[in-house]
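Morning!

This is the sequence you dropped in the shared folder:
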Amino acid sequence: MDNRTLTRLDPSLQQLIDREIDEHIDQRLHQLEDRVYALEHRSIQPEAPAHAATLAEPFEAALTAPPEPESTPRVTIETSASTTTSGLPILGKAVFGFAGAYLLRALEESHLAPPSLIIALAVAYATLWLLLSARLSKVNAFAAAAYATTSCLILAPMLLELTLRFQLLSPGAAAAILAAFALAALLLSTTPHGASVFWTPWLTSIGLALLLMAATHHLAPFIVTLFLFATAAEITPIRGRARSAHLFAAPALDAALLLLLLIYTSAASSRPDYPALTPTLLLAFTLAPFVFYAAVTAIHTLLRNQPIGLFDIAQTIATFLIAFAAFQIFHPPAANRITGSACLLLAAACYAAFFTRFRSPTQLRNRRTYSLWSAALLLLGCILILRTPWLALELGVAAIATALLSSAPARASLRFHALLYLAAAAYFCGLHQFIAHTLTAATIRAASPALITIAACSALTAYFTQCPPSSSLFQRIPTIASTALAAASAAALLVHFAAGLISTAHPGPVALAQTFITCTLALALMHATTRTHRREFLWIAYAAVIAIAAKLLLIDTRQDHFAWIAGSFILYAVTLITLPRLTRSTP
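The structure's back. Tokens below.
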């Protein structure tokens, strides 16, 4: 049955079909108009390339296509336009904030309200803008930053005027307001979008604390405030998202502590504007930051197994030096005993961590850092507590002990500890002066038991710090230095013994003995090179030959004992002739 048959049977049915076709055509035409409109505005809201192919389809295919949801390009265009001009209303609202601040200032000058109420209203008003900034941080970062800046520009002039000009706020109250404001910004900025809220109040609070501390001459409340900033930057979650927060608080705290030391080391008569502080309080101000940063470093490296950062290393060392200087300045009677004992305890703790922790290759920086700290602390503690000759003996024993422990490959850095302790022991007992005088001067000094003991320690240290043949030159430095010190000490002691056997006081025999023993030592070292294949013996032998030449030319030739000088040159010539024969078999 076709359409003509339906028309004959029921004309009303034909009219109904025609009306439905017209409505469907009108609907499809509206959809095509919307698609053409969207294609013409692709620069504003680009569509998928598949829509462009629709225009090339036949009109019948467009009529038979399934209906699609209507797009709203005009709404998108209006939203983009409003976004481009949204900065002006935000700035306008910020200007309203400044107007409110000036209204509060006018209210204060009119004396219609008590000053305490004006201060409370001003702080609440600045906090209100800070809360508004935190509320908008997820939606509009620019608005959040603008409102946070408005909050700071409201609070900063108010604090400066009320504290310095009108003196309605005490330095302690101003420091408390700064601490509350900065910590509130820190807590509000723990969200992923909180950086726009955090930085302006944070930097403003740090700068105001330093400025008010210098202007009011009241250092104590603002040092406490800066210490709160530094601790908050370390323990709050913002550090995981904005790790640069502590880079501003910690240096500001260090600067405040250095200013404290600089001012309170002078006489009280030269600082009448500064309030008096007891030595106990001064020590507490300087010791608390070191204890805090040492604890933070220990937690990060020992408990959480995190690699230590360069900032943590620098800040821990800086706070330690500040605390050490404070004890030396403000507690002189027992300063050496207290700080020395503390250094030895810290050295023991660092050595314990070095031997028991940091076995992973990723913790190499932690291992090296704790190694350096332990050596420096042990040396400093011994210097502060012990006195010569016990200091030299203690350091000599420490050199031998660390040399023995350095045999394991993982503890090779202890060879440098042994060299450090040995060099310090030689310096404090005067071994370097004894060697230089005995091998060059015409008169010989007496050798103390401490000198002989440290010379023996140098020989043992050189033996225990031997490196494998494949070691680099840097790894051989402790072995070379300790072996050279042992060889020079042996030569000096032999010259001292030979001079005691010489009955005459003429300087010629002593000079000849010096040359003979040094040349013999060079030949012995060269021979030891051929037997042990240790190249450091070869280098020390050549150094001894150069030292003999310098002594003959600069010292012996100025004397008038020509026969003895001739003997010295003969010995030196024999040494130069013999050395190449021993060198041929040297690897």
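Headline: Confidence is low (pLDDT under 50) at residues 1-9, 43-85.

More detail when I'm at my desk.
O.
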